[in-house]
Design goal:
The protein is built from 6 helices and 2 strands; from the N terminus they run H-H-H-E-E-H-H-H. By secondary structure, the chain is an alpha+beta fold. The protein has a two-stranded antiparallel ribbon with strand order 1-2.
Amino acid sequence: DDYARQPFVSPLDVSEIDNVVAKIDQHLEALPAISQVINGDEAKVMDFSSPDAFISSLYPYAKEVEQQTGIDARLMLAQSALETGWGQHQISQPDGSPSFNLFGIKAQQGWDGESAEITTTEYRGGLAMKEQASFRSYDSYGDSFKDYAKFLKGNERYQSALEHLDHPKEFAMALQDSGYATD
């Protein structure tokens, strides 16, 4: 609570963010219509070889959750890209299989699903510290998007962010101000 957070967006970066969002919109418009969400072993069919491939692979899941909750698909894709380094640095199970956790949600008290324990960097009092933590593990990337929305909607601390569903930048800033991540 006492960690002095830096703004996610400086006033000088707003025009650049608008340009990036416009590029994402162009890419999304070029995708085929949302079809049936992939079933089965999606880890083998997901392509995270580039940011465009990451977006193309996960967009159907993000769009489905957007339609159910109103949380902007672009925002979810952006946050999952940030949390996983465009899918290149995902949380893995001890056997190397994916946890499908795209949002870095910890397996805290009340979580009764599977989890993956890893060494992570957390910031306490502004200092980076390595510690062991359990993170939620899912059966699919679709489940990760659904649980992200459920997690936000079920936690009082994120209600101020959810008041900005029509404004992704304000949503992101309110999510940060709510303490979503220690960094």
